[in-house]
Amino acid sequence: MAITLVNPGGLPEIDAYRQVSIASGSKLVFIAGQVAWDADGVTVGEGDLAAQVEQCYLNIGTALAGVGASFDDVAKLTVYVADWTPDKMPLFLEGVARAAAKLGVTPVPPGTLLGVASLAVPGHLVEVEATAVID
Element (H or E) spanning 128, and its range? Predict the structure, then answer.
């Protein structure tokens, strides 16, 4: 495994993810922002943040598998949420938890969540991109 996830002393331990990833592989994998489309390009979970988050993470998993990688190889996630407000966090975490359970991911890699005014396609509530390291 090219990625080791840690919570260094002196930083808060957050159950949902680890604060730091250590990469030791030799190839970087950059996955474009994934939205809540299924394989046919149909939006999954119209108006449902948790369902869209879940689909985005599942799409990241599919993209990783396509290059011989998995979430174990992800060094960092970046998440963009349209019209973000802190009260949406439970729905966001529900979607992450559902995807993590399906993908067998624990813990989730470090990430950054950014609130944005909108995404490229109307109706998309979230977009997730990933950087992975593989040997």
Answer: strand 126-134
The residues facing 127 across adjacent strands are 80
Question: Tokens 């808060």 map to which residue?
Answer: 12
Identity of the amino acid at 98: R
For residues 93 and 95, give the distance between their C-alpha atoms in angstroms, rounded to a whole number.
Answer: 5
pLDDT one-digit tens code per residue, 50-88: 999 999 999 999 999 999 999 999 999 999 999 999 999
What's the helix, strand, coil split of the chain in %, to 5? 30, 35, 40
Cβ contact 29:61 at 8 Å: no
- For every residue of 63-108, DSSP letters joined together read HHHHTT--GGGEEEEEEEEET--GGGHHHHHHHHHHHHHHHT--SB
Are 113 and 17 spatial neighbours (Cβ–Cβ below 8 Å)? no
